[in-house]
Amino acid sequence: MDNIRGAREIGDVKIYACSMTMELFDMKLEDLDPIVDDVTGVATFVERAKEGRVTLFI
Fold it and tell me: What is this structure's pTM?
């Protein structure tokens, strides 16, 4: 998690949580670490990822 925080400090890094997983576990964005920018579905993630130079999907 420290590596991700460091990357955010250095560059334009966005963290998205999967909406389907969030729904499955009955979680809201507020339940996650503040490092998460938004909750998105697959289609939205793919659209946003196309704009990036590097995409890491975990």
Answer: 0.79
Each residue's pLDDT tens digit, 25-35: 999 999 999 99
Q: Count CB neighbours of 17 within 10 A.
A: 19
Token look-up 């999907």 returns: 57
CB 16 within 8 A of CB 36: yes
* Whether 37 contacts 14, CB under 8 Å: yes
Q: How many Å apart are CA 6 and CA 11, to the nearest integer? A: 9
Q: What's the CATH code, domain 2-50? A: 3.40.1260.10
